[in-house]
Amino acid sequence: MMRNRSTTFLGLLLATSMVLAACAAPAPTPTPVPTQPPAEPTKAPEQQAQPTEVPPTATPEPTPTSRPPRTGGWLDAITMVKISPDAVLTQLQAEEIDIYASTLGRAEQFKAAQDARLGYTQNFGGAYELTFNPYGGGANGALFDQSTGKLNPFAVPAIREAMNMLVDRDYIVQEIYGGLASPKFFPITGAFPDYARLADVARELEAKYAYNETKADEIITAEMEKLGATKVDGKWTYNGEPVTLIFIIRNDGDGTRKLIGDYVSAQLEKIGFTVDRQYKTSSEASPIWIRGNPADGLWHLYTGGWLTTAVDRDQGDNFLSYYTKDGQPLPLWQAYKPTEEFYQLAQALNNNNFSTLEERRELFAKALRLAMEDSVRVWLVDQKAFSPYRPDVSVTGDLAGGIQGSQLQAFTLRFADREGGDLKYAMSDLLVEPWNPVAGSNWVFDTAPKRFINDYGLIADPFTGLAWPQRVESASVEVKEGLPVGKTLDWVDFKFAAEIKVPADAFIDWDAEKQVFITVGEKFPEGLTANRKSTVTYPKDFFQKTKWHDGSNFSVGDFMMLWIMTFDRAKEASKIYDKSAVASFETFAKDFKGFRIVSTDPFVVEYYSDAFALDAELNVFDNWPEYGYGNGAWHMIAIGNLAEENGELAYSAAKADEKKIEWMSFIDGPSLEILKKYLDQAAAEKYVPYAPTLSQYITLEEAAARYQNLADWYAKQGHFWIGTGPYYLDKVFSVEKTLTLKHNPDFQDPADKWARFAEAKIAQVEVDGEGRVTIGKEASFDVLVTFKDQPYPAAEIQEVKYLLFDANNALVATGVAEATGDGQYAVKLDADVTGKLTEGSNKLEVVVTSKLVSVPTFASFQFVTVK
Amino acid sequence: MAQVTLSSGIQTYQKKSAANTLSRLLRYSAVRLVTLFLTVVVGVYLTILIANMGGYVDEILRGEIRENISASVFQNPAYRSYDVEEKKKLAESLIAQEEERLGLNQPFLIRSLSFLKNALTLNFGRALNMTSDSGSRQVSLILLERLPPTLVLFGTSNLLLFFSSVLLALTLSRHYGSWADKLIVALSPTSAAPPWFYGIFLILIFAAWLRVLPFGGMVSAPPPTNPLEYAMDLLVHMILPASALFLSSIFLSIYNWRTFFLIYSSEDYVEMAKAKGLSPRDIERRYILRPTLPTIVTSFALLVISLWTGAIITETVFNWPGLGRTLYRAIGLFDTPVIVASTIIFAYLLAITVFILDFIYALLDPRVKIGSAQ
């Protein structure tokens, strides 16, 4: 009996414990606490309620009145969620989510999205290529480590060069990527500005290296025979052994590299090589191809892949990176042996060692040709990924970063047919690592929500990579004469100067012990010059109109805190010294020549540096308090610093690991209690951080008000993350991988400020003209450039170039088309030019580049020449 | 006097007997605990060796660090103006920092013993690369944050599965050969399909097509703030994954238990009880369930501790934040502290369960005597 009871009791105990364990408490959500009005009260948006006549109906209904234009974001709320990429299309169709901001890349997914009539943006980010092992030794210069006696045909540049013609890039684009890619021949991205600038050179080379299996076979056969190889029964042999190419083919990722590998293997087998296909994942392949000694002969070629996450307006460094030993200090790169001419060119383009943009163009054109001749990599495709959304959603995607990488998405994401509404925004991951502005999560999934919370001094053009002013009112740039810098947009004043002197009262360094800036006059009494000077001016009413989400007005202290933090973390004498911050600081300090606050009302700041970009717009330094991992208000940073000074939290993962403390998070986890403790302490002391410097800019009253605002914010929202952007972070649910953003009513700009960027204005081009041209006589062709069936304004067109190819696909002439009106251009071929053509079918190709989008548009026209 | 002597003799005998029993129990417990501890030590150390491929993971990590840092320095536009030697110097210093952070500056053998010591003392320390959902590097938080969602889903579905299959099996064993019995036998091969397979179909039917249940996740987005609404929302989100787990195992489980009960139902002593005219309820309780109880309890106990492991693919299909996916990610990132912590907890749970079960057997079955040679 006793045992029965014991058994029953035990059973009940186990069952109860299971049930209790199963009753998991929901993630604690902070109870909303009535907040006190902020010290500097926030002005609610004015509701211009107009008196209206009472309608003659029994039921009074609100009458549409003229509402003030909406400010800030278009949406009332955004809920961000994590979902599996495999479920995206189903969930969009079921209206479970409204937009998927990460990217999809499979052809069948693209087709399904189109069939379901979903909207989408496309972006270029991934590039795929064949990486060759170019090591060659021995008597013929093409043997691996001589003990193996194995032949490496890819030690011969001509064979690598011929590989360009052995692969059919169009086949790869259509059959492997289902159209979600474009052929790629060069180490620059087809959608980025450098390609557009050199489109005529590129097209000529693309024609030269177009798919031609017969020609490739001929070249390779000739070179193989020179090496002493012979073909036996259609198979290449060397010293009586088959020439076996070890091909490391990646089989992870989206699976397309495996298909590329199989296709290229088949092409190589077709011309007589034996291919040993070794399918490997990244971690299996890396020790062999990238870290192994190329001389060991463990591989011949590899399916390489590279990623770009932002529109890069200067890809001149890619030649040095991809083709020379200076590219990376890894064994494979040390085996690269470019010609001296190519190496010099690569260095010149990397170091901006030229005087004008025209000179750069010439160097670049030569480098493209030499890269094709060198071909330690044969580039195959630029992948186009896509991000789908429901048909009633509208958004701006970045050409490189897609939707989740676009700064403008915060300002353009909306329901197309209405203002407001709650939108569900999905990504493939979310809340990956701790958020702190100084050295927190850098995952794109964490950066995407921050883009809605942040505001900017300058904002990146998603289609060209140039900068536009957001909070900055005006800017001017001076660059030392002889440096290759040009200007595209009108908003920035730009000029060259014979010499740029840095004023003696500009700050150039930081004394971490005394907590004061060191001036140029103190550090360089002999004077200092710089290559570049940037001056930005913020609006007069900037500090009155710009508020942090906790209600605190933006102040000069926010700007100055950024400067102090830039130096302080890298100084050993600092209380928050972090050795992991030293490397990036030294990079900055190498070119930094000083900054100077010219005026605090309005806020005007000068910035001096030796570093410069090719575009004047990208040489403007906005001084916006963006710390690299998010915007930061000075009072947020102050409590973070207190926590780090006292050894309880660390901004960087490296320091947190070293000190065995928590990596600071302003949104969740054990950090919050610690930050709250220091917030209370700071509030009690009216703490002004770095008082010897910041007390000039921050009053005790401002300090007290800010800490009170942040305390109220924390009580209400349960986190410390604030920004000044069009949405604020409402709630964070870490385990559930969800967060909510809400419309910021204090945001000052109209919602449609960036509406012109809702869609990339990619030109459509048609060429028309005589189908039959007499050799030796003038001929003319019309070029029609439109966007959505409307003429493309001439002012927005950078250039319309033409290339004339003869019946043998050889380039005969290039030139610039003549503008005859908006969207109308004429190509005139004079008698001398047509005289160079032979009888047959010729091709006139037109390349249109726009000032608004870096993607060039191509169109061609076939015509027949007769005598 | 004689009575007193006899009584005293009995008392002495009882005392001696109790002392012997206690001594036997203690000896048995000590030996058993030591054996189990040694098993745990060996099991955990083997896990450490396997998770690190006998130290080869160090080479992989070193290679990855070198590759990633080289790329981040040499392909970073910020360092474009540096000459090659400057870049190399910078990269080498960053590589050394990272190797030190991950402890790669120590030989693997020493680190493996340190991992073992920390594991056995339940000092889980910090993860190498992973962070918890709330952003902490503490291994205990990484695991604990995922424990409630794991228990709530797998606990519910497995308890439901266990009790319903035992009860239904018992009923079927009484109706051997009935249409229901034949139906279960016919359906039992359906358990060959894993839960995620059912999950995909359930999602397609109830979420994508009928749109009556959510696709996945633990709660709606945004989650309700009211605790009661949160609980209801959680229940709604559990329906599909719990159903998938339930459906994938129920028929085979019933079939197994039903066969098990049938074997016991045909024992001679059951036939004897029937011949005596005992009621079917008494026969079931005293003659069938009683001797099968140790097996049922064992099965139940092992089920309870198996909840710790979660289910990787099912969690992925339903986007459920469980421990299975955490462990899977840790393996992919070679995050040894997380792998070891997960293993040691399971190992300790298993050892404790095995130890306790010995005593439970003795309580349930009078034939079992703890520490006896027989």
Q: What is the structural class of chain A? A: alpha+beta
Report the count of strand segments of chain B: 0
Structural class of chain B: mainly alpha
Q: Could you say how many structural domains of chain A there are in total?
A: 3
Structure description:
The complex is a heterodimer of chains A (867) and B (374). Chain A contains 26 helices and 39 strands. With 867 residues, chain A is α+β, with helices and mostly antiparallel strands. Chain A folds into three domains: 124-383, Dipeptide-binding Protein, Domain 3 (Dipeptide-binding Protein, domain 3, Roll), CATH 3.10.105.10; 467-721, no CATH class; 761-866, Immunoglobulin-like (Sandwich), CATH 2.60.40. By secondary structure, chain B is mainly α. In chain B, 75% of the residues lie in helices and 0% in strands. Chain B is built from 13 helices and no strands. In chain B, helix 1 (2-51) runs antiparallel to helix 4 and helix 5 packs parallel to helix 13 (336-364). Chain B is flat. The model of chain B has no long low-confidence stretch (mean pLDDT 87). Chains A and B meet through helix 1, strand 1, helix 2, helix 10 and helix 20 of A and helix 2, helix 3, helix 5, helix 7 and helix 8 of B.
Which terms would index this structure?
heterodimer; A: 867 residues; alpha+beta; Dipeptide-binding Protein, domain 3; Immunoglobulin-like; 5-stranded mixed beta sheet; 26 helices; 25% strand; B: 374 residues; mainly alpha; MetI-like fold; 13 helices; 75% helix; flat
Concise overview:
The complex is a heterodimer of chains A (867) and B (374). Helix content of chain A is 29%, strand content 25%. Chain A has 867 residues and is α+β, with helices and mostly antiparallel strands.
Reconstruct the topology from this structure.
The complex is a heterodimer of chains A (867) and B (374).
Chain A: H1 2-22, E1 77-82, H2 88-93, E2 99-100, H3 107-115, E3 119-132, H4 157-166, H5 169-176, E4 181-183, H6 193-197, H7 199-208, H8 213-227, E5 230-232, E6 235-238, E7 241-242, E8 244-250, H9 256-270, E9 274-280, H10 282-289, E10 301-307, H11 318-323, H12 331-334, H13 340-350, H14 357-374, E11 377-389, E12 393-394, H15 409-412, E13 414-415, E14 422-427, H16 444-453, E15 458-460, E16 467-469, E17 474-480, E18 492-497, E19 500-501, E20 507-511, E21 516-519, H17 520-523, E22 529-530, E23 532-537, H18 542-545, H19 556-568, H20 582-591, E24 592-600, E25 603-609, H21 634-645, E26 649-650, H22 653-659, E27 662-663, H23 671-685, H24 691-694, H25 700-717, E28 727-733, E29 738-743, E30 764-769, E31 772-774, E32 779-787, E33 790-791, E34 797-805, E35 811-816, E36 818-821, E37 824-829, H26 831-835, E38 840-850, E39 857-866
Parallel strand pairs in A: 1-14, 2-14, 8-9, 8-10, 17-18, 26-27, 31-39
Antiparallel strand pairs in A: 1-29, 3-10, 3-11, 4-11, 5-6, 6-7, 12-13, 15-16, 17-23, 19-22, 20-21, 23-25, 24-25, 28-29, 30-32, 32-33, 32-37, 34-35, 34-38, 36-37, 38-39
Helix pairs in contact in A: 4-8, 13-14, 21-23, 23-25
Chain B: H1 2-51, H2 56-74, H3 84-101, H4 108-120, H5 139-174, H6 179-187, H7 195-209, H8 227-265, H9 268-276, H10 280-306, H11 312-317, H12 323-332, H13 336-364
Helix pairs in contact in B: 1-4, 1-13, 2-3, 4-13, 5-8, 5-13, 7-8, 9-10, 10-13
